[in-house]
Amino acid sequence: MSAITPTEVVFTERQFSAQAVVQMIVPSPQGGCWLVTDITPFHPVSHIWPDHPADRGSVTIAGAEYAVVTCSHGAIELATHQLYVGADIPVKRNEAGWVFVVAHYIEQALDITLIGSPVTLGVDQAYQLALSRGHSAGHLSSLALNKVLHHDYWRKDASRKDELGHYDFHSYAQTESRVTEDCSTDTYRLGKTLRKRGLNSADMLAALPQIADLINGHLTRWCQAKYPVVMRRDGVALTDSRYWQCDLAEEGLVEIPCGGTHVQSLAEYASIQVEFVVMNEQEIKMVTRTAVCKP
Fold first, then answer.
1. Over the chain, what is the mean pLDDT?
2. How many CB atoms lie under 10 A from the CB of residue 281?
3. What is the DSSP letter of 224?
4. What is the pLDDT of residues 143-185, one digit of tens each?
5. Cα–Cα distance between 107 and 30 in angstroms, integer?
């Protein structure tokens, strides 16, 4: 078997198809197989922070087309050529003797004689773009939330601040995030620890409708300004660090570590709006929804 290399990912460049070479085909216990290629335009779900769903699409190999129904982070032990997928990955990235790859799941079994064959990978473009809008909108709404809470809902200085210099409620309180098509949902816990850090959580809960209105005002202004978004990356491998960048002009340049897919400009939005859902006195959800700007 030829040498296995880390998967080169091109989804950060909004590339929806790629010519690649098959590096590995591994039968799945659920049936079908995992397909590993040297390059991919597919964004895989992370086994560490699975907030952004996997892309879907197709692969064409030896004249036949197969659906890629999901894809995941994978890790291959070079000494044994053993593939581990998702939660079964036993090592951290950059572990010596291992490479991290994108594992594409196909419901049909493929013959291992196809290893080394050229393939064409194609992503479901509309689905990826909808997830990208949802994910970027989630970053923007969290920044707007921190900005609104900064002056009126903290009784003492918070040591952790976000990229715009505001008290980082989002980072302190977030327990879960989920990206879906044109939507992002963040769950926050308003517990004792947060109150000790200085948040007036009772006042915040009472004022959620007004807070949502203020957030939506900021989001409207940012979208109308059509600020560009850039994905900065340290390299082309799956595990190389990537960063979401947006220059909000007078607000400042924001750079957030993020491995997802994203918009290229806020001009892609007709609107971004948030609403809060109160689960109980210690847990709330912020739901961020987007409307697409038609060409």
1. 95
2. 10
3. H
4. 999 999 998 899 988 889 999 999 999 999 999 999 999 999 9
5. 9
Q: What is the largest CA-CA distance in the chain?
A: 66
**Which one, of 156, 182, 183, 158, lies nearest residue 170 by Cα?**
158
SS3 string, 148-207, reads HHHHHCECCCCCCECCCCCECHHHHHEEEEEEECCEEEEEEECCHHHHHCCECHHHHHHC
Taking 70 as the threshold, does the pLDDT of residue 1 lie above it?
no
Which segments of the chain are extended strands (E)? 8-9, 17-27, 33-37, 39-40, 57-61, 64-77, 82-85, 98-106, 118-123, 174-180, 183-189, 229-233, 242-247, 253-257, 269-280, 283-292
In degrees and rounded to multiples of 5, residue 285 shows phi and psi of -120, 140
CB-based contacts of 29, cutoff 8 Å, min separation 6 = none
Q: Is 269 helix (H, G, I), strand (E, B) or coil?
A: strand
Judging by beta carbons within 10 Å of its beta carbon (0-12, 13-18, 19+), is residue 128 exposed, middle or buried?
buried
Which pair of structure tokens corresponds to residue 165?
Answer: 């210099």
Q: Which three-class secondary structure string do you get for 157-172?
A: CCCCECCCCCECHHHH
User: Residues 6 or more apart from 58 whose CB is under 8 A from it?
Assistant: 65, 66, 67, 68, 121, 122
With bands split at pLDDT 50, 70 and 90, how would you rate the model's confidence at 17?
A: very high
- In 10 A of CB 61, how many CB atoms? 20
- The pLDDT of 193-202, averaged and rounded, is 91
Mutual angle of helices 208-225 and 125-152, in 10-degree steps: 120
Selection from 272, 270, 275, 224 nearest residue 248 by Cα: 224
Determine the Cα–Cα distance for residues 205 and 186; give it in Å rounded to an integer: 16
